[in-house]
Write a structure and sequence with these properties.
By secondary structure, the chain is an alpha/beta fold. The protein folds into 2 domains: 30 residues, no CATH class; 261 residues, 3-Layer(aba) Sandwich (Aminopeptidase), CATH 3.40.630. It is 41% helix and 18% strand. A 6-stranded mixed sheet has the order 6-3-7-12-8-11, sandwiched between helices. Helix 2 packs across helix 7.
């Protein structure tokens, strides 16, 4: 048994079994499964000042909040292709159009709040994107992108990324190193504790958010199976910086390839963009319905 595994058992199991019994001077609350099971915490020391976007939708903080991230922007065009007339097609324009379409589709339901990391053609530091979701205490973060296959025009299809396990462990350690200056994490005093302890607590939170992200990615594939064209290997994982928030389920949706004619047509027409928005919105509604049911049943 590794040191990390043993330490995790020593720290968490007594609290879960005894309903918050004191262990080494700490009190561990029994987590309520569902949305509130995710560990929420404040990062101190290296916190950056970010202009948070407005939240659209009902003025009810009890309703779920989705942060939609349109990839690239400003002087960063992202992937670049050309249409049949030789006109430039840029990823940053596609992602913004899809983000706006998805926002409008979600707001029509009246039961989901939405915020955009960017609503116009501006550059946004990569690290600010997931941090916006964290500071807004979002329930889901969806980063929208498009891809390029270079000179090949036969590669096509959408895919969806979640954080890889290896990247999750590395990110947990990195967050823990910053977290040592904070005073509490989900009701547990951690001020001055070792990086090993902090890393375990952060990784526990991140494991839950990864499970939720995987569930959501499966819903996207299910809902879009007959409506969208997916890559032959549509479910992927990678060490992507925008997916590393430890307390917000996060996915990166690669909507297709700007270098493929069929994908490019879907991505640049109102009809095609509407299809993407409808599929993602349906998956989001089902995801939150499941979260609500799980919380109501006490699972």
């Amino acid at each position: 048994m590794s040191f990390r595994t043993l330490l995790l058992i020593v720290l968490l199991v007594p609290g879960l079994l005894l309903g918050g019994a004191a262990v080494a001077g700490w009190r561990f609350p029994v987590p309520a499964l569902g949305r509130e099971y995710v560990l929420r915490f404040v990062l101190a020391g290296e916190a950056v000042s970010i202009d948070l976007p407005d939240i659209a939708g009902p003025d009810d903080p009890a309703l779920p909040l989705v942060v939609i991230d349109a990839g690239h922007g400003g002087r960063d065009p992202g992937a670049v292709g050309a249409d049949a007339q030789g006109r430039k097609v840029q990823e940053k324009d596609i992602t913004l159009a899809l983000a706006l379409a998805l926002r409008d589709e979600l707001l029509r339901s009246g039961r989901i709040r939405v915020a955009l990391t960017r609503a116009d053609d501006r550059i946004l530091p990569l690290g600010h994107r997931p941090e916006i979701a964290r500071q807004l205490e979002a329930d889901l973060f969806v980063s929208i992108h498009a891809d390029s296959a270079g000179t090949r025009d036969d590669v096509s299809g959408a895919s969806i990324y979640t954080l890889s396990d290896a990247a999750s462990s590395e990110a947990a350690a990195r967050f823990a190193a910053r977290e040592n200056d904070a005073d509490r994490l989900n009701g547990i005093a951690i001020d001055g504790q070792s990086e090993a302890v902090s890393a375990i607590l952060v990784e526990l939170s991140q494991q839950r958010t990864q499970e939720d992200a995987l569930e959501f990615s499966g819903l996207v594939l299910r809902e879009g199976g007959e409506r969208l064209a997916f890559h032959p290997q549509p479910r992927r994982s990678a060490a992507l910086a925008v997916l590393r928030a430890p307390d917000v389920p996060s996915v990166l949706f690669e909507s297709g390839f700007v270098t493929n004619q069929l994908d490019r047509t879907r991505l640049t027409t109102p009809e095609g963009q509407g299809q993407y928005a409808a599929v993602l919105a349906r998956a989001i509604r089902v995801y939150f319905a499941r979260r609500s049911d799980a919380t109501a049943s006490g699972e």
